[in-house]
Records
---
Amino acid sequence: MKIRSGFVANSSTSSFLIVGISKYTPYRLSEKEKSKRGDLFELLKRLSLKDTDNPDEEWCNFGAKEGKYIDMYGSEQIYYIGIPIEKEIKKDIIYSDLVENFRKIVKEYYGIDIPEDFIDIYYGESGTG
Protein backbone atom coordinates (compact mmCIF):
# COMPACT_ATOMS: atom_id res chain seq x y z
CA MET A 1 0.00 0.00 0.00
CA LYS A 2 1.25 3.48 -0.90
CA ILE A 3 1.06 6.12 1.82
CA ARG A 4 1.20 9.79 0.89
CA SER A 5 2.69 12.28 3.27
CA GLY A 6 3.12 16.01 3.03
CA PHE A 7 1.52 18.11 0.31
CA VAL A 8 -0.68 16.27 -2.15
CA ALA A 9 -0.71 18.12 -5.47
CA ASN A 10 -3.88 16.64 -6.95
CA SER A 11 -6.16 17.07 -3.96
CA SER A 12 -7.58 20.30 -2.65
CA THR A 13 -10.39 21.34 -0.37
CA SER A 14 -11.52 24.66 0.95
CA SER A 15 -13.83 25.52 3.80
CA PHE A 16 -16.81 27.78 3.39
CA LEU A 17 -19.36 29.57 5.53
CA ILE A 18 -22.11 31.21 3.51
CA VAL A 19 -25.64 32.53 3.62
CA GLY A 20 -27.55 31.34 0.57
CA ILE A 21 -29.46 28.44 -0.91
CA SER A 22 -28.73 24.75 -1.27
CA LYS A 23 -29.40 22.20 -3.99
CA TYR A 24 -30.50 19.87 -1.19
CA THR A 25 -34.01 20.37 0.10
CA PRO A 26 -35.13 19.63 3.64
CA TYR A 27 -37.20 16.48 4.08
CA ARG A 28 -40.09 18.48 5.59
CA LEU A 29 -40.97 20.18 2.29
CA SER A 30 -43.79 18.95 0.09
CA GLU A 31 -42.92 17.70 -3.41
CA LYS A 32 -44.30 20.95 -4.85
CA GLU A 33 -42.10 23.02 -2.51
CA LYS A 34 -39.06 20.87 -3.32
CA SER A 35 -39.69 21.38 -7.03
CA LYS A 36 -40.02 25.13 -6.64
CA ARG A 37 -36.82 25.35 -4.59
CA GLY A 38 -34.95 23.13 -7.07
CA ASP A 39 -36.11 25.23 -10.01
CA LEU A 40 -35.03 28.41 -8.22
CA PHE A 41 -31.61 26.90 -7.44
CA GLU A 42 -31.06 25.89 -11.10
CA LEU A 43 -32.14 29.33 -12.37
CA LEU A 44 -29.83 31.15 -9.98
CA LYS A 45 -26.98 28.76 -10.85
CA ARG A 46 -27.37 29.45 -14.60
CA LEU A 47 -27.42 33.21 -14.04
CA SER A 48 -24.44 33.02 -11.68
CA LEU A 49 -22.37 30.94 -14.11
CA LYS A 50 -22.73 33.74 -16.66
CA ASP A 51 -20.77 35.95 -14.26
CA THR A 52 -17.72 33.66 -14.21
CA ASP A 53 -14.75 33.43 -16.55
CA ASN A 54 -15.93 30.01 -17.78
CA PRO A 55 -19.74 30.15 -17.98
CA ASP A 56 -20.06 26.73 -19.63
CA GLU A 57 -17.98 24.99 -16.97
CA GLU A 58 -20.02 23.66 -14.05
CA TRP A 59 -17.08 22.04 -12.27
CA CYS A 60 -15.97 24.11 -9.29
CA ASN A 61 -12.27 24.91 -9.30
CA PHE A 62 -10.92 24.32 -5.78
CA GLY A 63 -14.38 24.21 -4.32
CA ALA A 64 -15.64 27.67 -5.23
CA LYS A 65 -16.54 29.55 -8.36
CA GLU A 66 -16.46 33.26 -7.77
CA GLY A 67 -19.17 35.09 -9.63
CA LYS A 68 -19.53 38.82 -9.89
CA TYR A 69 -22.08 39.00 -7.09
CA ILE A 70 -22.50 35.57 -5.51
CA ASP A 71 -20.35 32.46 -5.31
CA MET A 72 -20.99 28.78 -6.02
CA TYR A 73 -19.64 25.86 -3.97
CA GLY A 74 -19.28 22.16 -4.61
CA SER A 75 -16.82 19.63 -5.93
CA GLU A 76 -17.82 17.97 -9.18
CA GLN A 77 -21.13 19.86 -9.21
CA ILE A 78 -22.48 23.02 -7.64
CA TYR A 79 -24.41 22.32 -4.44
CA TYR A 80 -24.55 25.71 -2.71
CA ILE A 81 -24.96 29.28 -3.93
CA GLY A 82 -24.40 32.21 -1.61
CA ILE A 83 -22.18 34.91 -0.22
CA PRO A 84 -19.36 34.31 2.28
CA ILE A 85 -20.13 35.57 5.78
CA GLU A 86 -16.94 34.98 7.80
CA LYS A 87 -16.21 38.73 8.08
CA GLU A 88 -19.83 39.63 8.83
CA ILE A 89 -20.01 37.15 11.71
CA LYS A 90 -17.01 38.83 13.33
CA LYS A 91 -18.89 42.14 13.12
CA ASP A 92 -21.72 40.70 15.22
CA ILE A 93 -24.31 41.00 12.44
CA ILE A 94 -27.57 39.19 13.19
CA TYR A 95 -28.97 36.33 11.12
CA SER A 96 -31.92 38.25 9.67
CA ASP A 97 -29.56 40.95 8.34
CA LEU A 98 -27.41 38.29 6.61
CA VAL A 99 -30.51 36.78 4.97
CA GLU A 100 -31.80 40.18 3.88
CA ASN A 101 -28.41 41.12 2.40
CA PHE A 102 -28.37 37.94 0.28
CA ARG A 103 -31.97 38.53 -0.85
CA LYS A 104 -31.13 42.12 -1.78
CA ILE A 105 -28.09 41.11 -3.87
CA VAL A 106 -30.01 38.40 -5.74
CA LYS A 107 -32.98 40.70 -6.38
CA GLU A 108 -30.79 43.63 -7.51
CA TYR A 109 -28.47 41.74 -9.84
CA TYR A 110 -30.57 38.79 -11.01
CA GLY A 111 -34.14 40.01 -10.61
CA ILE A 112 -35.10 37.01 -8.49
CA ASP A 113 -37.06 37.39 -5.27
CA ILE A 114 -36.04 34.47 -3.05
CA PRO A 115 -38.37 33.63 -0.17
CA GLU A 116 -36.68 34.01 3.22
CA ASP A 117 -37.45 30.42 4.18
CA PHE A 118 -35.35 29.16 1.23
CA ILE A 119 -32.24 30.84 2.65
CA ASP A 120 -30.02 29.48 5.39
CA ILE A 121 -26.44 29.40 6.62
CA TYR A 122 -24.32 26.58 5.17
CA TYR A 123 -20.82 25.47 6.04
CA GLY A 124 -18.51 22.72 5.01
CA GLU A 125 -15.62 21.75 2.81
CA SER A 126 -15.72 21.50 -0.92
CA GLY A 127 -13.08 20.83 -3.47
CA THR A 128 -11.44 18.49 -5.86
CA GLY A 129 -9.60 15.33 -5.21
---
Amino acid sequence: MKNISRKKIDVLAKIQKSKKFQESYKDSMVKTRLAVEIYNARKQMEWSQQKLAKKINSTQKVISKLENADVNVGIELLRKIFDEFNFNSDTLARIFNRHVVFWSFGSNPKNSETKTEFSKSEENKIKYL
Protein backbone atom coordinates (compact mmCIF):
# COMPACT_ATOMS: atom_id res chain seq x y z
CA MET A 1 0.00 0.00 0.00
CA LYS A 2 2.84 2.40 0.79
CA ASN A 3 4.42 1.81 -2.63
CA ILE A 4 1.25 2.92 -4.41
CA SER A 5 1.02 6.06 -2.31
CA ARG A 6 4.70 6.79 -2.87
CA LYS A 7 4.29 6.43 -6.65
CA LYS A 8 1.33 8.78 -6.66
CA ILE A 9 3.28 11.36 -4.68
CA ASP A 10 6.24 11.07 -7.08
CA VAL A 11 3.98 11.52 -10.12
CA LEU A 12 2.27 14.52 -8.53
CA ALA A 13 5.62 16.12 -7.71
CA LYS A 14 6.77 15.61 -11.28
CA ILE A 15 3.58 17.16 -12.68
CA GLN A 16 3.89 20.18 -10.40
CA LYS A 17 7.40 20.85 -11.72
CA SER A 18 6.26 20.92 -15.36
CA LYS A 19 6.05 24.28 -17.13
CA LYS A 20 2.56 23.52 -18.39
CA PHE A 21 1.31 22.93 -14.84
CA GLN A 22 3.02 26.07 -13.54
CA GLU A 23 1.52 28.24 -16.31
CA SER A 24 -1.92 26.76 -15.74
CA TYR A 25 -1.56 27.38 -12.00
CA LYS A 26 -0.56 31.03 -12.56
CA ASP A 27 -3.51 31.57 -14.90
CA SER A 28 -5.96 30.07 -12.43
CA MET A 29 -4.59 32.24 -9.61
CA VAL A 30 -5.05 35.42 -11.70
CA LYS A 31 -8.62 34.38 -12.53
CA THR A 32 -9.30 33.67 -8.86
CA ARG A 33 -7.91 37.03 -7.67
CA LEU A 34 -9.93 38.83 -10.37
CA ALA A 35 -13.05 36.94 -9.26
CA VAL A 36 -12.51 37.99 -5.65
CA GLU A 37 -11.96 41.66 -6.60
CA ILE A 38 -15.13 41.75 -8.70
CA TYR A 39 -17.20 39.95 -6.07
CA ASN A 40 -15.97 42.19 -3.23
CA ALA A 41 -16.52 45.39 -5.23
CA ARG A 42 -20.02 44.29 -6.25
CA LYS A 43 -20.95 43.38 -2.68
CA GLN A 44 -19.55 46.66 -1.37
CA MET A 45 -21.80 48.52 -3.82
CA GLU A 46 -24.68 46.27 -2.70
CA TRP A 47 -25.35 45.28 -6.31
CA SER A 48 -26.76 42.03 -7.58
CA GLN A 49 -25.01 40.21 -10.40
CA GLN A 50 -27.92 41.28 -12.60
CA LYS A 51 -27.39 44.97 -11.77
CA LEU A 52 -23.66 44.81 -12.54
CA ALA A 53 -24.39 42.95 -15.78
CA LYS A 54 -26.84 45.65 -16.85
CA LYS A 55 -24.35 48.43 -16.06
CA ILE A 56 -21.61 46.88 -18.20
CA ASN A 57 -23.97 45.66 -20.95
CA SER A 58 -23.43 41.99 -20.18
CA THR A 59 -25.43 39.14 -18.66
CA GLN A 60 -25.84 37.77 -15.15
CA LYS A 61 -24.44 34.46 -16.40
CA VAL A 62 -21.18 36.14 -17.46
CA ILE A 63 -20.86 37.88 -14.07
CA SER A 64 -21.47 34.56 -12.32
CA LYS A 65 -18.76 32.88 -14.41
CA LEU A 66 -16.37 35.77 -13.67
CA GLU A 67 -16.99 35.51 -9.95
CA ASN A 68 -16.42 31.76 -10.10
CA ALA A 69 -13.16 32.19 -12.06
CA ASP A 70 -14.76 30.11 -14.79
CA VAL A 71 -14.18 32.28 -17.86
CA ASN A 72 -11.39 33.95 -19.82
CA VAL A 73 -12.07 37.68 -19.76
CA GLY A 74 -11.78 39.78 -22.88
CA ILE A 75 -10.08 43.16 -22.65
CA GLU A 76 -13.28 45.07 -23.46
CA LEU A 77 -15.23 43.42 -20.65
CA LEU A 78 -12.33 43.88 -18.27
CA ARG A 79 -12.13 47.59 -19.13
CA LYS A 80 -15.87 48.02 -18.50
CA ILE A 81 -15.60 46.33 -15.10
CA PHE A 82 -12.55 48.37 -14.13
CA ASP A 83 -14.30 51.59 -15.19
CA GLU A 84 -17.50 50.71 -13.34
CA PHE A 85 -15.70 49.98 -10.06
CA ASN A 86 -12.96 52.59 -10.51
CA PHE A 87 -10.30 49.90 -10.11
CA ASN A 88 -6.79 51.33 -10.19
CA SER A 89 -3.20 50.16 -10.48
CA ASP A 90 -3.30 48.82 -6.91
CA THR A 91 -6.16 46.53 -7.92
CA LEU A 92 -4.22 45.37 -10.97
CA ALA A 93 -1.17 44.75 -8.82
CA ARG A 94 -3.23 42.56 -6.46
CA ILE A 95 -4.82 40.62 -9.33
CA PHE A 96 -1.52 39.96 -11.08
CA ASN A 97 0.41 39.59 -7.81
CA ARG A 98 2.90 42.29 -8.72
CA HIS A 99 4.41 45.06 -6.68
CA VAL A 100 3.97 48.32 -8.54
CA VAL A 101 6.22 51.24 -7.71
CA PHE A 102 5.55 54.77 -8.91
CA TRP A 103 8.10 57.49 -9.08
CA SER A 104 8.44 60.76 -10.93
CA PHE A 105 11.40 62.63 -12.26
CA GLY A 106 11.26 66.34 -11.56
CA SER A 107 8.05 68.14 -10.69
CA ASN A 108 6.05 67.21 -13.80
CA PRO A 109 3.64 64.33 -13.01
CA LYS A 110 3.46 63.50 -16.72
CA ASN A 111 7.01 62.17 -16.42
CA SER A 112 5.92 59.53 -13.89
CA GLU A 113 6.71 55.92 -14.65
CA THR A 114 5.37 52.60 -13.49
CA LYS A 115 7.62 49.56 -13.30
CA THR A 116 7.11 46.02 -12.12
CA GLU A 117 10.50 44.54 -13.03
CA PHE A 118 13.75 46.04 -11.79
CA SER A 119 17.43 45.49 -12.30
CA LYS A 120 19.58 44.81 -9.22
CA SER A 121 20.90 48.38 -9.20
CA GLU A 122 17.35 49.75 -9.40
CA GLU A 123 16.24 47.47 -6.57
CA ASN A 124 19.05 48.80 -4.38
CA LYS A 125 18.04 52.40 -5.14
CA ILE A 126 14.38 51.68 -4.34
CA LYS A 127 15.30 50.15 -0.98
CA TYR A 128 16.70 53.49 0.09
CA LEU A 129 13.73 55.63 -1.04
